[in-house]
Write a structure and sequence with these properties.
Shape: globular
Helix content: 25-40%
Oligomer: single chain
Strand order of the largest sheet: 8-9-10-1-11-19-12
Structural class: alpha+beta
Length: about 525
C-alpha cells in the first residue's frame, strides 16, 4: 500500500520513449552500473502509519488525562523535559542536563534550539507556565504526582529551578510523562480548555502535529517539518508523513485488521492469538514484562464495599490463577499488589490472598452479611474484558457475592470513576518505572487516581517517606510495608501483571519496544 514507484520518463509516445530519450537511457544505465559496482543501496524512510488502539482517547490535555491511550498520542505530540529509555533510565529531552544544588532544589538546563509548532520559542517561561498550570489545578491527576513541588522559577531563558517542600526522589521519572509535557503557553491560552482537549493544533514541540480527531473513528497526526531532533546521520526526524490511530475495542478484530493490512501496528492482541501472531511470517510480535497491574477497584465509601471484610471476602474469592491461565492464556503473571516483578521494590514473598472460598465466606460472615451484591463497571466492546468480568462473577457466586456487570464506553467509565459514581470498576494501570508511580497517586489519601477514596494514615506516611529518601533499599522497605497494609485493606483487587507488546507488520521498521508500553514513532518508518 505504501510502496513507492517513480517514472523516469513521463508524457512521451512509445516511439519517443525508445528513440527520443536514448542518450538519457545511456546516462541512467551508467549510473545504475556505477551504483551496482559500489555495492551501495538507498533506503527511503517515510510512509504513512496506521495504528490500532484498544480504546478511544479521552482528552489531549495532559493536565486532565487519566488514560493510557491519551498518553500513546500525546507523547508523540508533546515533548517532555526528560524521557525514559528502554532500560527505564532517565535521558535528556527538552532539558539537556540537571543538577541538585540542594535536596530541595532541582535546576534544569534547557535546549535553546526548540520552537513550538505555533512558532513561539521553547524556554524557561514555558516550563514555568506548564508546571504552574498543574500546581494551580487541584482537580488535576498531575497535582499528586508532583505535590512536593512548591514553586518553579525561570532563572534565565535556558535554566529553570524547581523548589521542593522536601526531597523528592521520583521527580525526574515523573517528569518523563504527562507532568513533564511542555506545551506552548500561547497555544494553551489561545485554544482554551475545551479546544485544547480535542483540537490541540500546534500546541506541542514534538515530532508530530495534530490534524484531526473524529471520535470513535480515527485521530490523525502529521509530520512536524520543524522538529528539532535528527537521526545519527543528521537526517531530520520524524521519517513518517502521518500516523492515524483507530480505536478498535475488540482485540480479536484488532488482530484481524493487522493481518489484513488495515492497520500496521496493534497495541493489543487477544491472548488466544499470540501463538498465531508469533508464527505469522508477515508480522513481528515481541513481548516483555511490563510494570503494569490489572484488576478492579472498589469504592471504599460505597456500601457494601465500605466494609473492609466484604472487600477481603472478594480478595479471597477471586481465582487469579484461573483468570491468568484461562482468560489471558498465561500472558503475564498473577498479582498480589501494585508492584510487578519488574520493579526494584517487588516483594516475591508477599502473597496474602489466594483463592479460598472458605476464607472468603468467613470474611463475609465477619462483615455481618451473608449475601451482598455490587455492580462492576467494564469497558464496552471488549469480549476479553467481558470474559474476565464473567469469571469474576462466577468465582464470587459460591461465596455469596453477586456481581452485576455493567458495560460503559471507556471514556464514560473514567468519568464515572473520577466522580466516584461507581461501586467497582475493572480498570488497570500501565505502570511507571519508579514505584511511586504505581502507589502514591492510587493509594495515598487524595491521590490523583484514588477514585476508590481509600485512606490509611500509615500508608500515607510510608509513601511520603519513600519519596524523600535517595537510598533505594530504604525506599523499597517503605513500599513493601505500604503494600502489605493497602493490600490487606483491599481497596483494589489485584489480579495480574501484564506484558508490553510489539505487534506490527514487517514493513514497520526501527520500532523500539519500551517496558512502559508507549509507542514512540519519531524514528519509525514504513519500508517499501
Amino acid at each position: 500500500m505504501w510502496s513507492m514507484a517513480q517514472r523516469l520518463v513521463k508524457g512521451v509516445s512509445p516511439r519517443n520513449a525508445v528513440w527520443g530519450t536514448l542518450p538519457v537511457c545511456f546516462v541512467l544505465l551508467a549510473l545504475l552500473f556505477s551504483a551496482c559496482g559500489s555495492g551501495t543501496t538507498t533506503t527511503t524512510k517515510g510512509g504513512d502509519l496506521k495504528v490500532g488502539l484498544a480504546a478511544d482517547l479521552s482528552t489531549l490535555d495532559p493536565l486532565k488525562s487519566s488514560s493510557f491511550y491519551d498518553r500513546q498520542v500525546m507523547l508523540n505530540l508533546y515533548d517532555t523535559l526528560v524521557r525514559v529509555d528502554a532500560k527505564n533510565n532517565v535521558q535528556p529531552e527538552l532539558a539537556t542536563s540537571w543538577q541538585y544544588p540542594s535536596p530541595t532544589e532541582l535546576v534544569f538546563t534547557l535546549r535553546t534550539d526548540v520552537t513550538f509548532q505555533d512558532g513561539t520559542p521553547f524556554n524557561a517561561d514555558a516550563v514555568v507556565f506548564n508546571i504552574k498550570r498543574i500546581l494551580s489545578t487541584p482537580s488535576s491527576p498531575r497535582l499528586s504526582e508532583i505535590s512536593t513541588v512548591k514553586d518553579v522559577v525561570a532563572v534565565d531563558a535556558s535554566h529553570v529551578r524547581f523548589d521542593l517542600t522536601t526531597a523528592f526522589a521520583p521527580l525526574l521519572l515523573t517528569l518523563t510523562d504527562r507532568a513533564g509535557m511542555i506545551l506552548s503557553p500561547k497555544a494553551v491560552q489561545g485554544l482554551g480548555d475545551t479546544a485544547l482537549a480535542t483540537t490541540p493544533t500546534n500546541a506541542g514541540s514534538g515530532p508530530f502535529v495534530f490534524k484531526e480527531w473524529v471520535k470513535g473513528d480515527h485521530l490523525t497526526v502529521l509530520r512536524n517539518a520543524h522538529y528539532w531532533k535528527k537521526d545519527s546521520d543528521g537526517q531530520a526526524l520524524p521519517y513518517l508523513s502521518s500516523v492515524t490511530y483507530r480505536p478498535i475495542t475488540d482485540s480479536t478484530v484488532e488482530y484481524t485488521n493487522l493481518q489484513t493490512g488495515n492497520i500496521d501496528v496493534a497495541d493489543a492482541i487477544n491472548p488466544n492469538l499470540v501463538a498465531q501472531a508469533k508464527a505469522n511470517p508477515d508480522l513481528i510480535y515481541k513481548q516483555q514484562a511490563s510494570l503494569s497491574f490489572g484488576g478492579f477497584m472498589l469504592n471504599t465509601q460505597a456500601p457494601p464495599l465500605n466494609n473492609v471484610n466484604v472487600r477481603q471476602a472478594i480478595a479471597w474469592g477471586v481465582n487469579r490463577d484461573e483468570i491468568l491461565n484461562t482468560v489471558l492464556k498465561g500472558v503475564g503473571v498473577t498479582a498480589q499488589g501494585p508492584l510487578s516483578p519488574g520493579s526494584w521494590a517487588f516483594d516475591s514473598s508477599f502473597a496474602p490472598f489466594s483463592y479460598d472460598v472458605d476464607k472468603a465466606k468467613a470474611a463475609l460472615q465477619q462483615s455481618g452479611q451473608s449475601n451482598v451484591s455490587f455492580t462492576l463497571l467494564i469497558a464496552s466492546g471488549s469480549p476479553l474484558g467481558t470474559q474476565e468480568a464473567e469469571f469474576i462473577q462466577a468465582e464470587l457466586k459460591p461465596v455469596g457475592i453477586t456481581v452485576n456487570i455493567k458495560e460503559e464506553v471507556f471514556a464514560t467509565l473514567l468519568d464515572d470513576t473520577a466522580a466516584h459514581n461507581f461501586q467497582a470498576a475493572l480498570v488497570g494501570w500501565s505502570g511507571r518505572p519508579d514505584p511511586d508511580g504505581n502507589t502514591y497517586a492510587w493509594f495515598h489519601t487524595g491521590g490523583g487516581f484514588n477514585d476508590m477514596q481509600y485512606s490509611n494514615p500509615q500508608v500515607d506516611s510510608l509513601l511520603e517517606s519513600a519519596r524523600t529518601s535517595n537510598d533505594q533499599a530504604t525506599r523499597a522497605q517503605d513500599y513493601i510495608q505500604a503494600q502489605q497494609l493497602l493490600v490487606n485493606d483491599a481497596p483494589y483487587i489485584f489480579l495480574t501483571h501484564g506484558v508490553s507488546i510489539q505487534a506490527t507488520s514487517k514493513k514497520v521498521q526501527n520500532f523500539l519496544l519500551l517496558p512502559t508500553g508507549i509507542m514512540e514513532f519519531a524514528s519509525v518508518y514504513v519500508s517499501s
